[in-house]
Write a structure and sequence with these properties.
Blueprint lengths: L6 E3 L13 E2 L11 H4 L21 E2 L2 H20 L1 H7 L3 H12 L5 E2 L4 E2 L12 E3 L4 E3 L13 E3 L22 H12 L14
Parallel strand pairs: 2-4, 5-6
Antiparallel strand pairs: 1-6, 2-3, 7-8
Helix pairs in contact: 2-4
Amino acid sequence: MMAEPDHIFINPLPNLARGIFPAGFPFNYILPSEYEEIIRKYFPKENGPITNIDPIGNSPVIIRKDLLEKIAPTWMNVSIRMKDDPEADKAFGWVLEMYAYAVASALHGVKHILREDFMLQPPWDTETGKRFIIHYTFGCDYNMKGELTYGTIGEWRFDKRSYWNVSIPRNLSMPPPGVPESVVSILMINSFCAYPYTSGAFRLHF
């Protein structure tokens, strides 16, 4: 499995892959069809329609080792080519290597099972439900009424970018009433980390 440091596992994760079909999360900001002119530099028409490219990144992905061994060198080479291409670099920015993974997978004919329940992304996803991972990639800014102020620094905020050079402190302040469960869950887990583990196991139930 490929995961990232800003993933919090909140439910036991089964093997969502099925043989030669890896499991991936469909990102609403990975849109190959909207960048077809650029994508075709790396995925020529003879490779098939642009819809052969899954709307995914490389994480979270559950994939067989032999499939990843085939995809990885192509993924690296496509990433480097895209980074050296000013048009692709400008268009894809911080998700460039995600596009490169999606393209590399398609070049090898690998299709992913798209699982929306794989992950949630606060503040846009407000409930944890039965999903498996919280991805705290977006800033969570709220006023003291519990209203989202995304794009404007809130009276209360949690944003991993506030901690570029230091570890995220334990036992951060809890958000104000009205903030959705998904954001509260991040802070609950953070507060539990402030206390040393003792006998008597506990786990969070979402």
